[in-house]
Design brief:
The chain is α+β, with helices and mostly antiparallel strands. It is about 35% helix and about 15% strand. It has helices at about 5-15, 30-40, 60-65, 100-115, 130-140, and strands spanning about 50-55, 80-85, 120, 125, 145-155.
Length: about 180
């Protein structure tokens, strides 16, 4: 493993998926910083095809945990961010699916910003599972132009996290 002397690399290499949270609320300034980081993600042709729901209502978080098979931890998180693709901002033709890359980059920025602020989160998949997208669309009354992409529960980790070293030299070919 490399020596971590750069704050950005350290943040990237030590981020973990957090699935257990303390009940402590997340300060509004941190939520704003996380959303600003999300919207700083790279985006093709500057389309910014993202839309975010910040869910803090405990009943709604519990309902999301009830309808999403891999987001059970949402019921115990102080908040979750639902990342959506805004189809009115999608490119056309061969580039019509590039929005997935843009909202994925925004989602990773959410996770990295949360980690940098001492928080944790976990990416839970909705897209392309129609049943999950439909359940969240119905629960939150999401307009048809928005595509529910993922739900990221966020909060302070309930316990210390140990990052995994995922570096695999055998997955690299130098040319």
């Amino acid at each position: 493993m490399i020596t971590l002397s750069n704050e950005i690399l350290e943040n990237i290499l030590t981020r973990t998926s957090v699935r257990r949270f303390s009940p402590e609320p997340v300060p509004e300034g941190d939520i704003d910083a996380i959303l600003r980081a999300a919207m700083s993600a790279p985006t093709g042709v500057n389309r910014r095809p993202w839309f975010f729901y910040v869910v803090e209502d405990k009943d709604v978080l519990a309902s999301l945990a009830g309808v999403l098979p891999y987001a059970k931890m949402a019921k115990d998180a102080p908040l979750a961010i639902l990342v959506c693709g805004d189809s009115s901002r999608f490119l056309e033709g061969d580039d019509s699916t590039l929005w997935v890359q843009d909202v994925s980059a925004a989602s990773e920025n959410i996770l990295l910003a949360a980690h940098a602020l001492g928080l944790g989160g976990v990416w839970t998949c909705l897209y392309p599972h129609q049943d999950r997208m439909d359940a969240v669309r119905k629960l939150l009354d999401i307009p048809s132009a928005l595509v529910p992409f993922n739900l990221i529960p966020i909060g302070y980790p309930a316990a210390p996290q140990k990052p995994m070293d995922k570096y695999s030299p055998d997955r690299i070919k130098r040319i």
